[in-house]
Amino acid sequence: MMRTVRLVFCSVVAVVLLGPVRAIPLRGQNQQNGSPQTTFRSTTSLVEVDAVILDDHGQFVPGLTADDLKLFEDGKPQAIQQFYMITHDSTNAIAPTANLSMTGVQLPEEHARRVFVLVFDEGSLATESLMRAKKGAEQFIQEQMGPGDVGGVFINSGMYRGRLTTDKNELLLGIRSSRPAFDTRQSLLASLREFPQIPSENDAERIESGALEVTERLGEAACNDDPVTCAQDGNLQGVENLLQQKARLYVRTSRSLVAQTVQNLQYVAGGLAHIPGRKTMIILSEGFFSEESRAILQNVAAQAARGGTTIYSIDARGNVNHMSVNPDVVRASMSRSGGFDTGDDSLNILTSGTGGFMIRGMDDFSRAFGMIVRDTSTYYVIGYEPDNKTMDGKYRKIELKPASPGLTIRSRKGYLAVTLPPLEQIRNNTGIGGVGGQR
Fold first, then answer.
1. 3-state DSSP call for residue 81?
2. Which of 23, 173, 66 is nearest to 400 (CA)?
3. What are the CA-CA distances from residue 248 to residues 183, 201, 434 (Å)?
4. Which of 14, 89, 224, 388 is most buried per CB count within 10 Å?
5. Are strands 378-384 and 82-87 parallel, antiparallel or unpaired?
6. pLDDT tens readout for residues 345-399
7. Would the pTM count as exceeding 0.85?
8. Which of 312, 301, 313 is nearest to 398 (CA)?
9. All structural domains of the chain with their residue ranges
10. Is cis: bond before 96, omega within 30 of 0?
11. Start-to-end C-alpha separation, the chain
């Protein structure tokens, strides 16, 4: 039966969850029949940290206990109060030991399914990148989403049909409805490559902010390299005027695109915060100018982390190098250009801050999505109540360290100390969620 979770994306987002689902039990979990069970749930005071823990060979490490880890918030040790492993891979050979989870503990139902939201950052996507991203996303929906997985498609500044769903046909329609933007990141970057050339986005930002020494240096370089065009454009003074005009246009338009992207990400993360358990946001993007947006991007990542959302990104350009300024989108064996582009920093802030990762330089999008699916299929959940229980809205740093060497841990780096939004519980037994109302 098709299952649908409706999201009303407004100033306050209400969510109705899926119908009853069976929690995936830990194999080897030691529970006695008839014994009282404790169910762990996220509360406003409980902070959950999802962690992928690998050995020296990059393989997931099963069978760990809370004693194998040390948890710190703002540098202060915290007591781990819940610890268990989630696995969605029935073919996985991982078999957790009995001491992985405490006796009498029932795993939360929200971890029995995966939630994926695909975010098309259309303002950053050139037409060929958008086509590549759509094809990869369609393959992901058709081949890698499981029967119990829930998905959503954020396109054209909105969630397709305003909801999450298990209906693959609806998700495919959402992906196919995405359209190229008029102004994109690559069209803006193309202007920087033209005479007089601005070598990087950072140079454009410095010129726009009034750094005359940068304008003079680049103007002199342009006139020395191409004196004929320099003379046609009004000699050095005219070239410097052109540099300033280009820089102002680039920065102004980039700010608008970044503001829209940030608003979209906040929108999605805010909606997903109403759903308990781990959620996965996959951003399909070419990156965006982040020099002026670092603080707000860190804030977005911290908000997403507090709401249990892990962010991943896939560079929709595919295989990219920084040598040629001319993209080749015909042959997969040819690299596409990332010259003049520093947008990777923005995506790194979002992914690393929430415990996800970036995928770049890969034309095989099926493999790229597969890496993300595997990463969301088996992980540990660590829960604790911070010593500082005041939800003051400030950023708090989380450090999860191995008690002994030989382990690599990837988890969210921190969170905003804000009260979690209310969660709507199951309303019926049909497996189909109703429509959430405003609050």
1. coil
2. 66
3. 15, 11, 48
4. 14
5. antiparallel
6. 889 999 999 999 999 989 899 999 999 999 998 999 999 999 998 889 999 999 9
7. no
8. 301
9. 18-112+378-416, 185-252
10. no
11. 29
